[in-house]
Amino acid sequence: MTKEINYNKLIRDKIPELIETAGKKYELHKADDKEYLQSLLAKVKEELQEFEEQPSLEEMADIFEVLTALIAYFDFDEEKIREYQEKKRKERGAFKKRLILDKVIE
Asked: What average pLDDT does the segment 1-16 reach?
């Protein structure tokens, strides 16, 4: 009996090889720009949820991989991102103090 599992989600580049090595067949397609961006955004949410459920270096690496793909998609300069990050740290700080704003009273 043949069993099919539908995924319809973005996968890492070497997953087809791993599926073949396992002796299984698959169907896939290459995403156009719109579908790729939507899939990257969905993947970042998926990876964040997995990290929330089980914080680990492996899950953090998965988040970084998706962020790296988003950076490449938008052709952002990583050095510029770091510059913006540092600028915001200087102007507004980081998150090291663990501050939670409850309310502002005017």
From this structure: 92
